[in-house]
UniProtKB/TrEMBL annotation:
The chain crosses the membrane at residues 20-43. Residues 73-242 form the Glycosyl transferase family domain. The lineage of its organism: Bacteria, Bacillati, Bacillota, Bacilli, Bacillales. Keywords: Carboxypeptidase, Cell membrane, Cell shape, Cell wall biogenesis/degradation, Glycosyltransferase, Hydrolase, Membrane, Multifunctional enzyme, Peptidoglycan synthesis, Protease, Transferase, Transmembrane, Transmembrane helix. GO terms for cellular component: outer membrane-bounded periplasmic space. Gene3D superfamilies: Biosynthetic peptidoglycan transglycosylase-like (1.10.3810.10), DD-peptidase/beta-lactamase superfamily (3.40.710.10). InterPro entries: Beta-lactam/transpept-like, Glyco_trans_51, Glycosyltr_51/Transpeptidase, Lysozyme-like_dom_sf, PBP_transglycosylase, PCN-bd_Tpept. It comes from the Bacteria. This is Penicillin-binding protein 2A. In the N-terminal section; belongs to the glycosyltransferase 51 family. Residues 334-605 form the Penicillin-binding protein transpeptidase domain. GO terms for molecular function: penicillin binding; peptidoglycan glycosyltransferase activity; serine-type D-Ala-D-Ala carboxypeptidase activity. Coiled coil: none annotated.
Length: 728
């Protein structure tokens, strides 16, 4: 019996030891697992925290040289500020409502969870959040919004990591810059500008409280969604600020009595800016190697050369259907304006209703038509030794099977370069390009960044394979008013990054001397003639203007136009305006040619002139011989003759006629003779000629021919008059 008892005791002892051993092992395992989990939670946050995400996306601000707003580029509309720039009362408003123990906890505040549940029940509203500011920041930066224990665990891990590696001020600054305020607005500074039209540093206590109240439900508590709810929420925040000793009772009551006073929001926006912003983005990509994505998140400040008056004026007038003539209502257009002196791109319109991401028609190539003539033919010809009043051919010639016609079917045989350009004679342009050589014309074009593969004489008329963009055409024309020097246009003055460092361009804009100053100025004067008495007379503009029209024939709608152009030069600006359709088929064609863009350009310039006075006349550069105005020979049909008496010749004759207003015209007086008529003399600018050598009983016949000393051209003979002693 005793032996059995011993065996039983031994059994129970062994069993107890086994149980104790299992318990110890189990407890040890639990401890080790708990310790591992604890250490993982404490130190594993680094696996969740993405340091790149701590660099918040910031809005790139685009401003003019006068610090006027010119647009924003962003993925998240945010302007970064330091904690020092945020008023203390704004900081305390967020802490009071979101995490009153922010400066005393280590990232997770378990006491706040219980307290927040209690206060929310008492207030019947979300007065205080259970998550700390650090947890909210961690969730917003590194996690999604799914509700799960795993996501919450990760949030805690990331929060602890942030608390261990960053100061409380660092975390609060990140939080206030990161938090969302509805309407696409991120961060307190952008919110201050959006809701109150002021920087965050100028926010009042009441305004800061309203923003702090929006955090828990931005779309619910936005004053633009529900003003009464936003007001009640702000008042709850003010009450919480009193409870946490930020405000006293009198202050809280006074502040709760204030209205929200938010800035009214316009639904229209600034639709005329997108066109220019796209040009800025493209230049930043090309010259500064900043990608579109980097601009949208990098928080740069880009100072640009946009002329806000010109940009908005061009946009507004391009909305007027009265300037557009087409088979359907969707006629498109593109407009560019370059500063004549600097080369700055002052304005650019990519379409009548352009939005970023659309086809930017100012950068798209179109068939240029006759706007090519000065660039490919007349400018090069002047540089090669031709003169504006030199005669060129105006006949239908055959150039190895290539024949052209003038639009008006009028052929003068010979015509001056000045008049050939003014009247846009196709035959003369082709003939002149043949004389100077296609390769010569192309060489000049290439210096102006107008490179083309074409080799035929059709280049003279803009009949080219790929076409050119309105910006390219405007840059080429600016060469004439810039003393013959080509320069690429540009939008950006400078770029500064979020740390205040200037971003240097990788290369400068291209510049090259193409024409001599004299040839260039002669070209400007010739283009002035196109406006004053040539194909660009449509529309009204009473200040200095030169330019060239261009129209291309529609391939599927004979008698109608595919592209219509006008490029204009003033002493201040160079403009190019294109009209046409995005697709060219039998159903889409222009019913009016270059007169339409000419009229619209003049309307734009007239409107700009009302706000910034444009020059009355062109002034020739120093050291340049100005081109005299053309001489137009009159038809003299009122020649008369009569006797005069007196002097040592008792009987003399006097020829009289009505002279033209242009006193430069010479009048050559002839007497009819058998064989060749005799030149009796020449008078300039007057309508009187004295006949001294006349026989007493003879009968003589006289006539006058006007003469142009610029072109050495004779006009038509006048009527013939008879003079004798017995004239009736």
């Amino acid at each position: 019996m005793k032996k059995q008892t011993i065996i039983q005791d031994l059994y129970h002892y062994i069993k107890m030891r086994t149980w104790l051993k299992v318990l110890v092992i189990s407890l040890s395992a639990v401890f080790l697992i708990s310790l591992s989990l604890f250490l993982f939670i404490i130190y594993g946050g680094g696996l969740i925290v993405d340091e790149e995400a701590l660099v918040l996306p910031a809005t790139t601000s685009v401003v003019t040289e006068d610090e006027e707003y010119a647009g924003r580029l962003f993925t998240q509309n945010r302007s970064l500020v330091s904690l020092d720039e945020i008023p203390e009362h704004v900081q305390k408003a967020f802490i009071a409502v979101e995490d009153e123990r922010f400066y005393s906890h280590a990232g997770v505040d378990f006491r706040s969870v219980v307290r927040a549940m209690y206060r929310d029940l008492i207030a019947f509203d979300k007065v205080e959040g259970a998550s700390t500011i650090t947890q909210q920041l961690a969730k917003n930066l590194f996690l999604d919004n799914t509700q799960s224990w795993m996501r919450k665990t990760k949030e805690v891990m990331a929060s602890i990591y942030l608390e261990r590696h960053y100061t409380k001020d660092d975390i609060l600054e990140l939080y206030l810059n990161e938090v969302y305020f509805a309407h696409g607005i991120f961060g307190v500074d952008a919110a201050a500008e959006y809701f109150f039209n002021k920087p965050v540093g100028d926010l009042s206590i009441s305004e800061g409280a309203m923003l702090a109240g929006m955090v828990k439900g931005p779309n619910m508590y936005s004053p633009y969604v529900d003003e009464e709810r936003a007001l009640n929420r702000r008042n709850l925040v003010l009450a919480q600020m009193e409870r946490t000793n930020v405000l006293d009772t009198n202050e809280r009551l006074a502040l709760q009595g204030q209205s929200l006073n938010v800035t009214p929001q316009s639904s229209d926006g600034v639709p005329w800016i997108d066109d220019y912003l796209e040009a800025v983005i493209r230049e930043a990509e090309d010259r500064f190697l900043l990608t579109r994505e980097e601009l949208q998140r990098g928080g740069y400040t880009v100072t640009v050369h946009m002329d806000t008056v010109a940009q908005q004026t061009a946009y507004d007038l391009m909305q007027d259907d009265a300037f557009f003539y087409g088979s359907t209502d969707d006629v498109e257009a593109a407009f560019t304006m370059i500063d004549a002196k600097t080369g700055h791109l002052s304005a650019v319109i990519g379409g009548r209703d352009y939005k970023i991401g659309d086809e930017h028609r100012a950068f798209n190539a179109h068939q240029p038509g006759s706007v090519m003539k000065p660039l490919a033919v007349y400018g090069p010809a002047l540089e090669e030794g031709y003169t504006p009043y030199q005669f060129v051919d105006d006949e239908q010639n055959d150039f190895d099977g290539y024949r052209v016609q003038n639009v008006d079917q009028v052929y003068d045989g010979d015509v001056t370069m000045y008049d050939a350009l003014a009247r846009s004679k196709n035959t003369s342009a082709v003939w002149l390009l043949d004389q100077i050589g296609v390769s010569t014309g192309k060489n000049y074009l290439e210096k102006m960044n107008l490179t083309l593969p074409d080799e035929g004489l059709s280049i003279a008329l803009g009949g080219i394979e790929q076409g050119f963009s309105p910006i390219q055409i405007a840059e080429g024309y600016r060469t004439f008013i810039n003393n013959g020097q080509f320069q690429e246009s540009y939008t950006i003055k400078h770029i500064v990054d979020r740390d205040g460092n200037e971003v240097e361009p990788t290369h400068s804009v291209k510049q090259e001397q193409v024409f001599s100053p004299q040839a260039s100025w002669d070209m400007v004067r010739m283009l002035e003639g196109v406006v004053n008495e040539g194909t660009a007379q449509a529309g009204d503009f009473n200040k200095a203007l030169a330019g060239k029209t261009g129209t291309t024939e529609h391939p599927h709608a004979p008698g109608n136009a595919k592209d219509a152009w006008f490029t204009g030069l003033t002493p201040e600006y160079v403009t190019t305006l294109w009209m046409g359709y995005d697709r060219s088929d039998a159903d889409h064609y222009l019913t009016r040619g270059s007169a339409a863009p000419t009229e619209l350009t003049k309307a734009i310039l007239t409107e700009i002139d009302q706000q910034q006075t444009l020059s009355e006349t062109f002034t020739s550069p120093d050291g340049i011989k100005d081109l005299p105005e053309p001489i137009r020979l009159p038809n003299v049909d009122d020649l008369e003759v009569d006797h005069t008496f007196g002097g040592w010749r008792l009987i003399r004759g006097e020829l009289t006629w009505t002279p033209a207003e242009d006193e430069r015209i010479e009048y050559h007086v002839y007497q009819e003779q058998p064989g060749d008529d005799e030149l009796l003399g020449t008078v300039e600018g007057t309508g009187t000629f004295n006949l001294n050598d006349m026989g007493l009983f003879s009968e003589n016949h006289y006539y006058v021919i006007p003469y142009n000393p610029l072109t050495e051209e004779y006009g038509n003979p006048s009527n013939t008059v008879r003079l004798s002693l017995f004239n009736e």
